[in-house]
Automatic annotation (TrEMBL):
Region (Disordered): 1-29, 195-225
UniProt protein name: Dynein regulatory complex subunit 7
PANTHER family referenced in this protein's UniProt entry, alphabetically: DYNEIN REGULATORY COMPLEX SUBUNIT 7
Ranges of residues in domain CEP76/DRC7 peptidase-like: 239-312
Subcellular location: Cytoplasm, Cytoskeleton, Flagellum axoneme
Entry's family note: Belongs to the DRC7 family.
Transport among keywords: no
An example Gene Ontology CC term for this record: motile cilium
BP-aspect Gene Ontology terms: cell differentiation; cell motility; spermatogenesis
Lineage of origin: Eukaryota, Metazoa, Porifera, Demospongiae, Heteroscleromorpha
């Protein structure tokens, strides 16, 4: 029975990672040997009945050259990462983390099925290895998942996505169509009845499909000759493995396939898959008994139907494969294995799967991966791999050979400047940048051209700004600002400049020609009193035009024009009223004309508003210059932020902080030692070098130091004693006063007396304790100084 199996002396794979593989990898238990005997018997029976079928993938060898049952190679695992709890996150991780190796030859089953631990360690494997890893993760989180062995198209087996559109470009379409394998909501509200014509909808679908077909034909006809694909001699024979997820568990609505090499999902009738030989999970192995001549269109995935799926382990609703009587006589001569109905599948021989947080974050091998799509190239990078925080770069091309780039879309993470996305158009030189909330100026996006430097558009998070600025658009001779949610109902301000080359310097202002402000209607004012537009013309002859909102049932609006006198903007100018400089149009002829005083006051307020608006325009120019200067600095030296929860990366910062704190503590200790140099005041009094003192001078210095110490101890004791006596005397005087006035004292005075006594007693108690402690420790302090003087190298000859 073991003659057809590989032995440990004939290894066909490597070790598990860098360490020696455990015993379960290098040998089989008795139960596993019995299971392999079942596989031998099952294979003989299946070959007898279906001699034209290809061999089944029942007992591939592992990386140590030991035959293992395919089901026991799966190791259901639930890893502590939220993203791996859903099928799309797990599929995306496996596709990005593992590099797929094509089968050689492509029309035969692989000789080896590596353990998921080895696949994770090497980050490389065949489609069978990757599907086994993905199936282990899906089963571990509750999905009804299976590995599928079958046949697929060449672009699937070779992971050639050059003819497919990048998934990032199909996000909108997938959201409209709804992905397969969606979750069922038990609280789903039924949509209203669709009353549109289904026939018309089908006709529109056919028409759009026909247009798409013609478009593809035109592209194929215009494509270069070298891009035309060759005839695939292995068509229909290319062996491949993918994952099947059945509906039911985890609220999966319908069956669907997952391509482990790309992480994408497909329907079970996808034309990319041509046939199925078998499928298995961690409990059983099923052989497909259905015809796949027309692909998988009519395939039924009812694994309990024995006429469509032959199972390795039978159950009540899955009967054992029936063998003709003429063959059983031959088989009866051999020793029959035990009844498989009573057989319990041995546990997986694979060690528990583990992915470190660093590896999970790295995702791609070496942290980066490049995928080629139809007219596009997608590059993905792990977090913190690049110095600028780049995690994704999608390049779009105008040709299928990917030579002429038309657009680049970059995605960033962990940027200190809050940059999230950047889109660069090759032809126009247009650059669009998007930022998350948190910048000082609340900048949301920045659109500019590398060709036309004078034109740019900035948008802001208006809710995070005091002025409610939503966007600011700059051109060579104009600046347009749009506001939202302002209390003065201003929603747009346009500033026209003298047409010159703009400067980024905040001190070089361009000459303003005209400022136009537009306002929403203030509901608290009547339309003929609510300003709709103000136009400040600053070029001589200067003027201010005010237009009011339309009144109901009116086609024209009231307006008023003020001709401002020359030099009115100069400081110290006295404004005078000139009735001839004011003109206007009143929609309602019966409305009273405004008085001269009202017009003069309005002119004064408009002139003041004009000065304020010009100041705001200059502030906007300075803000733009500051933003551009800051963006240049940020791009020249991009900084990345590290989360406080990122323990691995914060470890370096933690060590650096510890070193800095240790240096600070050492400097503080040295400073304290300098401050505690008891001989410094006395050595400083000496004339000449202190190192050349004779014995007499050393003795004199020591005696003077001890004398000073003795005097300081006495002085401290006297101070404490004086404070104690003063507090005691004050308390005695207060008590004597209380006894003398006890009969006539008020409650408030009595309360104050009680509080004073409590505080005084507390201070007396503390002073008494400090005095007693000082008296008990003073002799020891004196003796300690004497010992230090005796041991001091500067006075050592004196002792």
């Amino acid at each position: 029975m073991d003659s057809g199996r590989a032995t440990p002396e004939e290894p066909q794979g490597g070790n598990v990672g860098e360490e020696a593989p455990p015993e379960s990898y290098r040998s089989n238990s008795k139960k596993e040997e019995l299971l392999l005997g079942y596989c031998d018997n099952f294979t003989r029976q299946f070959k007898k009945l279906y001699g034209d079928r290809k061999p089944q993938f029942l007992r591939p060898v592992n990386e140590c050259g030991i035959e293992k049952f395919a089901c026991t190679t799966l190791r259901p695992t639930c890893l502590p990462y939220k993203e791996l709890y859903d099928w799309d996150g797990a599929a995306s991780f496996v596709a990005g983390y593992i590099t797929c190796s094509p089968l050689h030859p492509p029309d035969e089953l692989p000789q080896q099925l590596s353990s998921p631990t080895l696949v994770l360690s090497r980050q490389e494997g065949t489609s069978f290895d990757m599907s086994g890893l993905l199936c282990s993760l899906l089963v571990g989180v509750g999905y009804d998942a299976y590995c599928v062995s079958g046949y697929a198209m060449r672009e699937v087996t070779e992971v050639d996505q050059g003819g497919k559109t990048c998934p990032l470009l199909e996000v909108g379409e997938k959201e409209e169509e709804g992905g397969v394998g969606g979750k069922l909501s038990r609280y789903l509200v039924r949509p209203p009845r669709d009353l549109s014509s289904q026939f018309e909808r089908r006709q529109e679908t056919k028409a759009s499909a026909e247009e798409e077909r013609k478009k593809r034909e035109i592209e194929a006809a215009n494509a270069p000759v070298e891009e035309e694909g060759e005839v695939d001699k292995y068509h229909g024979l290319r062996v491949h493995c993918w994952v099947l997820v059945l509906s039911g568990k985890r609220e999966v609505a319908q069956n669907f396939f997952i391509e482990a090499t790309t992480g994408e999902s497909y329907s079970t009738d996808s034309e990319l898959y041509l046939g199925i030989e078998s499928l298995w999970n961690h409990r059983n192995y099923w052989i497909n008994m259905q015809d796949c001549a027309r692909g998988l269109q009519n395939l039924v995935f009812d694994l309990g139907d024995a006429t469509k799926w032959e199972s390795f382990f039978p159950s009540v609703d899955q009967p054992l494969l029936v063998v003709p009587e003429e063959s059983t006589a031959t088989l009866g001569e051999e020793k029959k294995p035990d009844d498989k109905e009573d057989f319990e599948l041995p546990p997986s021989w694979v060690l528990p799967l583990h992915i470190s947080s660093k590896d999970f974050e790295t995702r791609c091998p070496q942290g980066k991966k490049t995928t080629l799509y139809h007219k596009s190239r997608l590059e993905t990078f792990s977090d913190y791999l690049t110095s600028d925080g780049l995690v994704s770069r999608l390049s779009l091309y105008s040709d299928t050979a990917r030579r002429s780039r038309v657009e680049t879309r970059s995605v960033y993470r962990h940027r200190e400047d809050r940059l999230e996305r950047r889109v660069e158009e090759g032809g126009s030189g247009l650059v669009h940048e998007e930022f998350s909330l948190g910048r000082e100026s609340a900048l949301r996006s920045h659109t500019h051209s590398t060709i036309h430097h004078h034109s740019r558009t900035l948008t802001f998070y208006h809710n995070a700004r005091v002025d409610g600025l939503r966007s600011r658009e700059l051109a060579s001779s104009e600046m347009v600002e749009v506001f939202q949610g302002r209390p003065d109902f201003l929603h747009q301000r346009s500033t026209a400049y003298l047409k010159t080359t703009p400067s980024r310097s905040s001190g070089d202002h361009r000459e303003v020609l005209r400022i136009v402000e537009k306002f929403h209607h203030d509901p608290s004012l009547p339309p003929n009193s609510a300003v709709a537009e103000r136009v400040f013309s600053l070029k001589e002859p200067s003027s201010i035009r005010v237009t009011y909102h339309l009144e109901p049932d009116r086609i024209t609006a009231s307006h008023r024009l003020f001709l401002t006198p020359p030099h009115s903007q100069e400081q110290g100018y006295n404004l005078t009223f000139d009735p001839n400089a004011i003109s206007g149009y009143q929609v309602d002829p019966q409305a009273p004309e405004p008085k001269s005083q009202e017009l003069f006051q309005q002119l004064e307020s408009l002139m003041a508003a004009q000065d304020d608006i010009i100041s705001q325009v200059r502030a906007s120019e300075r803000e733009v210059a500051a933003i551009l200067g800051r963006r240049e600095a940020e791009e020249s030296n991009p900084q990345l932020s590290v989360s406080v929860y990122d323990v691995a990366r914060n470890q370096k910062a933690f060590q650096q902080r510890e070193e800095e704190e240790e240096r600070a503590r050492e400097e503080e200790r040295i400073q304290r030692e300098k401050e505690r140099d008891y001989l410094a005041p006395f050595l400083g009094k000496l004339v000449g070098d202190a190192k050349e003192m004779d014995r007499e001078r050393m003795v004199a210095v020591a005696e003077e130091c001890l004398k000073d110490k003795r005097q300081s101890l006495v002085d401290k004791a006297n101070r404490l004693q004086c404070q104690f006596d003063a507090e005691t005397e004050a308390l005695s005087r207060k008590q004597a006063w209380y006894k003398a006035n006890q009969d006539s004292i008020t409650r408030e005075s009595e309360a104050n007396y009680t509080a004073f006594c409590n505080d005084s007693l507390f201070r007396i108690h503390i002073l008494e304790q400090r005095l007693n402690i000082h008296k008990s420790t003073a002799p020891e302090k004196y003796l300690q100084l004497e010992r230090r003087l005796r041991e001091d190298h500067r006075l050592r000859p004196a002792h």
